[in-house]
Write a structure and sequence with these properties.
With 311 residues, the chain is α/β, with parallel strands linked by helices. The protein has ten helices and 14 strands. The strands form two sheets. It has a ten-stranded mixed sheet, sandwiched between helices. A four-stranded mixed sheet has the order 3-2-6-7. Helix 6 crosses helix 7, helix 8 packs antiparallel against helix 9 and helix 9 crosses helix 10. The protein starts with a strand and ends with a strand. Bound molecules: adenosine-5'-triphosphate and 1-O-phosphono-beta-D-fructofuranose (F1X).
Length: 311
């Protein structure tokens, strides 16, 4: 089974403001709301591929209740939540279609008690079976122990599950100590993780290989419109991003993680996983907000992905 864990989910409010200007009055042209947070987005994308996931999340208040009700209606997703006393956050995504830039304004998330974290962890551990995949993704809410991902990853691995970690900052740095089976930093997250500026592909690959030497199974480095690098013990692959009309790049990384988790579960080859993640993330940037793309778009784009092996 595939499990996604979102300890800091969010209702994503995406607003379109052409020529968004800091310090000025800005008028919203269009707006939409999506049930999000990184792990939940991964579940939404895997559902598009026809894969089943259990989406574990901490949800609270009226926002959390609404999000749970939405998830309960989704085919292929079994939501499992612990109700928190604090209100689930609402994150603002500003899309400036004129300048072609996105601005994320993310709330820190509610204070979560030790009991609430422990209840969610128990819910996960009770169910885990050897061979399962657990995706731990996103930021930690206020007052969470910074070692949460490391500690949970260790426990999941003890149960025989594979752990995919998509986080940044200190939670990622500590999480790597648990030797996750896959991490998917973008360039900035990788730079922060290895503590050095990475100038080009060679530097990025050196950093990724160093992490693999320290026990991380596979490292996928996403490079936005420059594509991605896929490093495993099997091979190192390079993919350019596909040229597509871009609506919102928010959540592109989540669709990549979804494709990798689904592909691993289906025992796809490393090259097929790379192709699916590039096609899926390209389809995702063509969508408004943080909604999952349609399967027919992914299938069309899949045929266009070019993968080259890095010597
Ligand atoms: N402008 C774009 N055009 C086509 N594909 C894109 C574009 N931006 C991103 N992608 C695809 O999405 C993948 C992930 O993007 P990115 O590196 O921005 O992820 P991220 O920083 O983790 O994003 P987020 O945290 O918002 O999910 C890229 O490797 C690429 O395949
Ligand atoms: O604040 P975090 O947890 O790092 O990121 C949260 C978030 O930006 O990530 C998703 C896109 O990747 C959105 O659904 C959500 O709002």
């Amino acid at each position: 089974m595939l499990y996604t864990v979102t300890v800091n989910p969010a209702l994503d409010k995406t607003v379109e403001i052409p020529n968004f200007s800091v310090g000025e009055v800005n008028r919203i042209q269009t707006m939409r709301a999506d049930v999000g947070g990184k792990g939940i987005n991964v579940s939404k994308c895997i559902a598009v591929l026809g894969g089943d996931t259990t989406a574990l999340a901490l949800l609270g208040g009226s926002v959390g209740k609404g999000m749970l009700a939405f998830l309960q209606q989704q085919p292929h997703i079994e939501p499992l939540s612990i109700e928190t006393a604090g209100q689930t956050r609402t994150n603002l995504k500003i899309i400036d279609s004129v300048r072609g830039v996105n601005t994320d304004i993310n709330e820190p998330g509610p204070a979560v008690s030790g009991r609430e974290f422990a209840d969610l962890q128990n819910l996960l551990l009770e169910r885990l079976q050897p061979g399962d995949i657990v995706v731990l993704a996103g930021s930690l809410p206020t007052e969470a122990p910074v070692s949460l991902y490391r500690d949970w990853a260790v426990r999941c691995k003890q149960e025989g599950a594979q752990v995919f970690l998509d986080a940044d900052g200190e939670p990622l740095k500590l999480g790597v100590e648990a030797k996750p089976d896959l991490i998917k930093p973008n360039k900035e997250e990788l730079e922060a993780l290895v503590g050095t500026h990475l100038l080009g592909e060679k530097d990025i690959l050196r950093a990724a290989r160093m992490l693999m030497k320290h026990g991380v199974g596979r490292v996928v480095v996403s490079l936005g419109s420059d594509g991605a690098l896929f490093c495993s013990s099997e091979s190192t692959l390079r993919a350019s991003a596909l040229q597509v009309p871009v609506k919102s790049t928010v959540g592109a990384g989540d669709s990549m993680v979804a494709a990798l988790a689904y592909g691993s579960m289906q025992r796809m080859s490393w090259e097929e996983q790379a192709k699916l993640s590039v096609a899926f993330s390209a389809a995702s940037v063509m969508c408004d907000g943080t909604q999952a793309p349609e399967l027919k778009t992914v299938k069309k784009l899949y045929k266009k992905v070019v993968i080259t092996e890095v010597a």
